[in-house]
Amino acid sequence: MDKVGVLGHSTGGGAAIQFCGTDQRCKAGLTYDAFMRPVSLDVLQNGTPQPFLYLFSELWPFARNIELFEGYYRRVPASNRVITILGADHYDFTDLPALSPLAPQLGLKGPIPGAQVQKILMDTTLAF
C-alpha cells in the first residue's frame, strides 16, 4: 500500500496525525477530537503536509490539548480545515449514544441529538 488515508478518534486521531507526519504513504487524514498529547514533538513542530479535516466536539475542552493542536495547526497547509460541532461531546463521535439510552444521563453525550451528530459526521466525511 503506497497511498493511505487515515481516520481516527481521540487517541486514534493523534495516531493519524503522527502517522501522516512520519510516513509518506499517508495521502490524507481525518480526525475526530484528536488527542494531541501522544503526537511527537517533531510532528507538533513541523506539522503534516497532507490534506486534513479536523472535527472537534464543542464540549471536550482540554486546555493543553487545544494548545498543542493550535501550535500544530499553524504548521499545516492553509487548505486544511477545522470544524467544531456545537452541542457535541467527545463520545458523540462514537456509537455509544446510539447504543445506550443512558448516555445522556451518564454525561456521555452532548445536548445535540445523536442522529444529528452522526449526520454531520457522515456528510462532512463524505464531502472531504
Mind explaining what this structure looks like?
It is a single chain. With 128 residues, the chain is of the alpha/beta class. The protein has a single domain, classed as Alpha/Beta hydrolase fold, catalytic domain (Rossmann fold). It is 37% helix and 19% strand. It is built from five helices and four strands, in the order βαβαβαβαα. It has helices at 11-22, 41-46, 63-73, 96-99, 114-127, and strands at residues 4-9, 26-32, 52-57, 81-85. The two termini are 21 Å apart. The model has no long low-confidence stretch (mean pLDDT 94).
Gist?
This protein is of the alpha/beta class.
Q: Roughly what fraction of the amino acids lie in strands? A: 15-25%
* Helix/strand class: alpha/beta
| Radius of gyration, whole Å | 15 Å
Largest sheet: 4 strands, parallel
How many domains? 1
* CATH top level assignment: Alpha Beta
- CATH architectural label: 3-Layer(aba) Sandwich
Count every beta strand, where a strand is a DSSP E run of 2 or more residues.
Answer: 4
SSE string? EHEHEHEHH
Mean pLDDT across residues: 94
CATH superfamily membership: Alpha/Beta hydrolase fold, catalytic domain
Q: Name the strands of the widest sheet in spatial order.
A: 1-2-3-4
Number of helices: 5
Q: Using the alpha-carbon principal axes, give the shape.
A: globular
Low-confidence stretches: none
| CATH fold field value | Rossmann fold
